[in-house]
Design goal:
The structure is a single chain. By secondary structure, the chain is an alpha+beta fold. The protein contains three helices and eleven strands. Strand 7 and strand 8 form a beta hairpin. The radius of gyration is 20 Å and the shape is globular.
Length: 140
């Protein structure tokens, strides 16, 4: 190996390490995300600071009625857990929580549900994976 490479390698490593340094978010002493167990349930309520929700790009759409007792949500709202169960994250009480759903069919970008939140309930359509990671404690 030549001398230039021997000198450049540590510099590249040093630059990479400094780029990975985390910078704390200004939250007024508050954590950007708070996870609180919902009593009597296996799910938790996730509350985010406004800045955290903005950085995650959280977007919601309302559940829409369909034929009969069916409802429709964007397919991007559907979350499949490790057991294959299906969920959506609903927005309520200033936070987000998983709610179980039963998917009857996927039609393009729409998921037809036979069970789940009632029409009008806001469900997360962008940021679903991030909310799951927060709830699961990934990255802590």
């Amino acid at each position: 190996m030549n001398a230039k490479r021997l000198i450049a390698a540590p510099v590249v490593v040093l630059l990479a390490l400094t780029a990975c340094r985390s910078v704390p978010e200004q939250t007024g002493g508050r954590s950007p995300a708070n996870v609180e167990a919902i009593e009597g349930s296996e799910v938790s309520r996730i509350t985010l600071t406004g800045r955290a929700a903005e950085r995650l790009g959280i977007e919601t759409n309302p559940v829409r009625p369909s034929s009969g007792s069916r409802t429709v949500v964007p397919y991007s709202a559907i979350y499949y857990d490790a057991e294959g169960d299906t969920w959506v994250f609903v927005e309520s009480d200033g936070g987000y929580a998983r709610a179980p759903v039963v998917v009857e069919a996927i039609e393009g970008e729409r998921a037809i549900l036979t069970a789940g939140p009632v029409p009008g309930t806001p469900v997360v359509v962008v940021g679903v994976a991030e909310l799951h990671g927060i709830e699961a404690g990934i990255g802590q």
